[in-house]
Amino acid sequence: MRADSSRQQRLLDLQAIDTRLDQLAHARRTLPQLAELEDLGGKARLLEDQLVRSRTELGDVQREVAKAEADVQLVRDRAARDQARLDSGTGTAKDLQALQHEIVSLARRQGELEEVELEVMERAEAAEHDVAELERGMGELTARITALETARDRETARLDDEARHVAAPRDTVAAEVGEDLVTLYEKIRKSSGGTGAAALHQRRCGGCRLELNPVEIQRLRAADEDEVLRCEECNRILVRTPESGL
């Protein structure tokens, strides 16, 4: 293949554009916020599960509290009615004696129920504390995630803007290089880690960084100016420059 020196020089410009675009794409894929967001997302899901369980537990305990309070109130009301009947003195002596026994029994039952009520209320208080702590943690985590998402979006937008700016002249540069040389360049670039063309600098290939041997140097010296040269080691297109050392 033949390509005048100006086309080959523009090929280096095309490579510079593509290299920078690859760097920007890599930076976009590996933003530090992405890894942290993934980690925090997992933590948020776990915390949300814990919060759902804790809220469910709290609801169950609160229903227990309501039942315990109702049971205590039921016994209090019964005891109050019995006491009122006893105080009124109406009824036979046997009835009044029975009321006294029932009041004593109700007092004992009320004490037992109040102990149950106290235990359930303590569990409810502990459950409320757990829910409050989890909600506080979720709030802090959500705020951190929001801040990271904002930073991620801001950095992504910056990288995208730079990529658009860098890519703007690519079509023009590619047209100046020519379809035949661009096709070869793209093929090599795809198989060579993103570098399809490199400058020959001080007898070293800018792609593989290896110094050319004397025989290869002699071959390059003898080549026509418009001949498209390839590195023997990495097969990339070698572009001669005033700093090639030939």
Quickly list its features.
5% strand, mainly alpha, 246 residues, single chain, 2 domains, Helix Hairpins, four-stranded mixed beta sheet
In a few lines, what is going on in this structure?
This protein is mostly helical and 246 residues long.
Helix-strand category:
mainly alpha
Q: What is the averaged pLDDT score?
A: 93
What does the main sheet amount to? 4 strands, mixed
Instruction: Write down the Rg.
Output: 42 Å
Distance between the termini: 21 Å
Number of strands: 4
Helix share bin: over 70%
Number of distinct helices:
6
**Spatial arrangement of strands, main beta sheet:** 2-1-4-3
The CATH topology of the largest domain is given as: Helix Hairpins
Number of domains: 2
Shape: rod-shaped
The CATH architecture of the largest domain would be Orthogonal Bundle
Succession of helices and strands:
HHHHHEEHEE
The CATH class of the largest domain is Mainly Alpha
* Unreliable segments of 5+ consecutive residues: none
Strand content: 5-15%
Q: Can you offer a commentary on this structure?
A:
The chain has 246 residues and is mainly alpha-helical. The protein has two domains: 5-26 and 178-240, no CATH class; 31-167, Helix Hairpins (Orthogonal Bundle). 76% of the residues lie in helices and 5% in strands. It has six helices and four strands, in the order H-H-H-H-H-E-E-H-E-E. It has helices spanning 5-29, 32-88, 93-167, 170-177, 179-191, 214-222, and strands at 197-201, 204-205, 229-230, 237-240. It has a four-stranded mixed β-sheet with strand order 2-1-4-3. Strand 1 and strand 2 form a beta hairpin. Helix 1 packs antiparallel against helix 3, helix 1 (5-29) runs antiparallel to helix 4 (170-177) and helix 2 runs antiparallel to helix 3. The two termini are 21 Å apart.
